Amino acid sequence: MLPVHERLAELFTLSRLRQLTASEETEQQQCLQVNATYCWEMARLQNEILLAEQTTDTQWHQDICSQMFELRITGRLPKRPK
To answer: What pTM was estimated for this model as a whole?
Structure first.
């Protein structure tokens, strides 16, 4: 779990107890944006894994797995070489 997910849960819990302040609402929107990006990137990688499996490209599969691991741990994808 990323820190942004923990903060989002905290803000959700606070919103159940009281109205969020303007800065908390802004932070909640930022957390939701980060979460959406994270989910889209993870879905893209999962689709790429399916393609790698279907084409039996083990090197590509390993590369994608390492990218998924990096995304889960840091919340960011490693920079791709140009």
So the answer is: 0.85
